[in-house]
Amino acid sequence: MSKSVIYWFRQDLRLADNPALLHAAHSGKTVIPIFIFDPDDRSLGMAASWWRQQSLAKLEAALKKIGGKLSFYEGRPVEVLQKLSDFYEADEIVWNRQYDGYSVSRDKEIKQTLPNSGTGNIECKSFNASLLFEPWLIQNKSGSYFKVFTPYWRQCMAGNAPEAPCPPPTELRSHPDVDPFQIPLPASPLTADADLIAEEWTPGEAGAYQQFENFIEEGLEIYAEFRDFPDRPATSRLSPYLRWGEISPRQIWSKIQFVKSHEKFSEQTISKFLAEIGWREFSHHLIYHVPEMATQNLQPSFNDFPWLENEEALLQWQAGNTGYPLVDAGMRELRRTGYMHNRVRMITASFLIKHLMIDWRAGEKYFWDRLLDACPANNITGWQWVAGSGADAAPFFRIFNPIIQGEKFDPQGAYTKRFIPELSHLEQKHLFSPWKVKSDNMDLDFQEGQYPDPIVEHGYARNRALDAFQQIRR
Q1: pLDDT tens digit string along 266-299?
Q2: Which position among 307, 310, 401, 407 bears the catalytic label?
Q3: Catalytic-role residue among 225, 279, 310, 321
Q4: Whole-model pTM above 0.85?
Q5: Which residues are annotated as a binding site for FAD?
Q6: Residue 307 is among the residues annotated as catalytic for this protein
Q7: Is the domain of 141 the same as that of 209?
Q8: Cα–Cα distances in Å, from 310 out to 358, 361, 362, 421?
Q9: Angstrom distance (rounded) from CA 258 to CA 250
Q10: Chain-wide mean pLDDT for the chain?
Q11: Where is the site described as Electron transfer via tryptophanyl radical found in this chain (predicted)?
């Protein structure tokens, strides 16, 4: 019997546009598709674990249709891969690349260790399935990485177009033997909120395609005009699918190129949507070149920022009980659905950092624990952007007014009232400052309980944050 090739699924839970899997299928060897639960990797929150479990189950079924069998393992990948390569007499291990610091160092260890251990003669190959442009290929004029998005994306657009997506394999040759190291697919830890989240999402490759088609039909036309309005169906909601690789950026790019000639899609809409794919690329570009930004301020001046320790305020923010309706609606959306609209993410993050003066890392950790799309690159880059401590960051003195933001981006109150039903009978003019109604001794006619007063006054919080910022500029 010919040798075998081990294909290691990671954040690429799909068959189409999967170059490592296609390479394995075309190798003429038996293919062992695997997924490893790595205890050294950053632990996922319950929502993301639920998504991964659902997606892996869909992937397992899809592989069976083409003759493959997905096997699950737990342990350090270098050790698991060594045992499997010995058992199956594999002479090749292939995977698609990841770009965060831990993944890069882990993969280097595997490439350095396995070819020279055990039976030897093991070839390790990695492929790009997650990005339009590899991080090391986009350089500024000095030959270094970009720290600002706009020139980065301009440079990307000035070069060669991204590669076309590759087709899915039509058949896999499975190995007849079964190793003794396999484990069952672990059950999802998500229980209480699983039904609520399942109502909102359909994990898996087919679900990703359907979501993308729905966006093209219903949201793309209004994307440029309404993408900042959380009550409008104007965003793609593809981020969890991209996070787990159920759809690739090349597939998105290719489809958009196909549909952009349609007269109902303006050039502005197409450019803005592709720029959001570009921001994802930029986030991976940064985390690859500066892996320490996962835990450290990219701007060293923020190392001296006088953050406050306020556990009570942090818990109120997490629960959606700050007294600012748009902030609270976002935090309650997150708890209920595992997701939050991007504009509202910026507003809730700004409130934690600048109104409450709590370290951005506390917010990043909570989002990581709660988001379905918690991504090692996007989550970090977004939080440092809001804090002003990262690359291409919004200046710290840009402090969102949660009242004005609500009035501007939820003008009918549909989004806020959906997640804060106790405010559903409030007139729109009072919705984002309900404490004013209380001060006028008006009857709020709350439906469900009493909505809290603000935990901090906006003007005071803004001045306090600006004073703190001046301290680190001296």
Answers
A1: 999 999 999 999 999 999 999 999 999 999 999 9
A2: 307
A3: 279
A4: yes
A5: 223, 235-239, 273
A6: yes
A7: yes
A8: 7, 14, 11, 28
A9: 12
A10: 93
A11: 307, 360, 383
List the domain range (segments joined by +) for residue 426.
300-473
Q: According to the model, what pLDDT value does residue 229 have?
A: 98
Catalytic residue status for 95: no
Average pLDDT on 448-460 reads 88
Tens-digit pLDDT profile for residues 100-143: 999 999 999 999 999 876 556 899 999 999 999 999 999 999 99
Structural domain count, the chain: 3
What's the pLDDT band for 464 if we cut at 50, 70, 90?
very high
Which residue among the candidates 214, 321, 342, 401 is catalytic per the annotation?
Answer: 342
DSSP state of 451: P
Read off the pLDDT band of 238 (50, 70, 90): very high
Whether 360 is a known active-site residue: answer yes
Tell whether 373 and 277 lie within a shared domain. no
Say which CATH number the domain at 272 has.
1.25.40.80
Same domain, 353 and 442: yes
What is the rounded CA–CA span in Å between residue 370 and residue 344? 15
CATH of the domain at 36: 3.40.50.620
**Domain holding 448: CATH number?**
1.10.579.10
Which residues line the annotated binding site? 223, 235-239, 273
Task: Note whether residue 230 is domain-resident.
Answer: yes
90-96 and 123-127: which strand pairing?
Answer: parallel
| Marked catalytic residue, from 8, 50, 383, 385 | 383
For 230, 320, 350, the CA distances from 413, given in Å and listed in that order, are 10, 17, 21
Residues 335 and 240 in one domain: no
DSSP E strand stretches across 154-301:
none
The reply to whether 279 belongs to the active site is yes
* Residue 375 and residue 264 share a domain: no
